[in-house]
Amino acid sequence: MARVYATATQYETYTGLSPAPTDIDVRLRRASAFLDAQVFRYCRYATDNEGLPADPLVAAAFADAVCAQVEWGIDVGDTTGAAGVGWGKVQVGSVRLERPTAASASGGETPGRQVAPAVWDALQSPGLGPERLYLGLVVSC
Known about the structure:
This protein is mainly alpha-helical. The protein contains 5 helices and 2 strands; from the N terminus they run H-H-H-E-E-H-H. The longest helix has 21 residues, at 56-76. The chain is globular. The model has no long low-confidence stretch (mean pLDDT 84).
């Protein structure tokens, strides 16, 4: 089962918006899975039996990071990475937009598939030294 690092209440506190979107649990789950794949798996931190951060400061930072990722998706209008899929070249009047064909097919470069800048802010907050959270660690056995 996928880990979810934030709750609807934490999202409301983080954003100051209440109530949270009706599908917030789905968005938090997707953002948690996305950050697991893109960021958290490259970090070293103590975990509990469920694989969640054991340190309360790390858990709070992960929750803020997930909330930031959800907020980013809403702000840029692309919560799944599909917003730019399907077009390579578009021209409307004198405005012409062009995206490489591979990106238009996969959506890999769309805003919804980017790590939100505020995620990095949350993970580098004061008090999260390398003894609690080490960013970017890759270890081979």
